[in-house]
Amino acid sequence: MLELRALSFRRAGRMVLDGIDLRIGAGEFVGLLGPNGVGKTTLLRAALGLIPVQGHSSLAALPVHERARAAAYMPQGRQIAWPMPVEALVALGRIAHPRAAGLDDRAAIERAIAALHLGPLRHRRATELSGGEQARTLIARALAQETPLLIADEPIAGLDPAAQIEVMRLFRHLADQGRGVLASLHDLGLAARHCTRLILLGQGRIAADGPPETVLTAENLARIFGITAHLTHGPGGLLFQPLDTIPRD
């Protein structure tokens, strides 16, 4: 669903991404992890062809109309400029699909609204919603696009704990149905519990890539995040709790 080869990006003389090789397949929910400023957003935007980079992205190589049917994108910025109803905003996700294709737009919109529990808000102006409600609306818009791949940049930031868990469960459900999900995340505990695979970025390179228990090791946490943490297996998966920072030189 996505292949990156030797992807590199330099900003103001600093190497932000340095030779990234990455493949995302069907049935994967991949969490992209790393400290602030390490290049997670840049990597997602580069993969989508939204910024010029060196190297190859299978998505960026597609014509725009094909790209929009191959991958949906929820950006980190959540500014909603138009005072349009939630239902109409979610419906924007169907623009990529030509009506002549015979696709059931209404059914896709209703599925997305139901998945994010937006029924009671469907007639509210999106600009009048809380930040968390706006985030759920934008996730629903991406979901309504019904693409094989969903790319989301910090999708659970600002959501209350219940909504965070529901969104992570939704993304895992999409992967279990055979779709691919790539999401940048800061909550390592939820990433450990729900993602099928984690990618850890450090200094513009992939520092670790694999199942959560092989990525969230004491060594990786100390080297990349500068923290100690407690990890254990509990009902439903890996449990992760940050404990303390490690003094830096």
From TrEMBL:
<dbReference type="GO" id="GO:0005524">
    <property type="term" value="F:ATP binding"/>
</dbReference>
<protein>
    <submittedName>
        <fullName>ABC transporter</fullName>
    </submittedName>
</protein>
<dbReference type="InterPro" id="IPR003439">
    <property type="entry name" value="ABC_transporter-like_ATP-bd"/>
</dbReference>
<keyword id="KW-0067">ATP-binding</keyword>
<dbReference type="Pfam" id="PF00005">
    <property type="entry name" value="ABC_tran"/>
</dbReference>
<dbReference type="GO" id="GO:0016887">
    <property type="term" value="F:ATP hydrolysis activity"/>
</dbReference>
<dbReference type="InterPro" id="IPR027417">
    <property type="entry name" value="P-loop_NTPase"/>
</dbReference>
<dbReference type="InterPro" id="IPR003593">
    <property type="entry name" value="AAA+_ATPase"/>
</dbReference>
<feature type="domain" description="ABC transporter">
    <location>
        <begin position="2"/>
        <end position="228"/>
    </location>
</feature>
<keyword id="KW-0547">Nucleotide-binding</keyword>
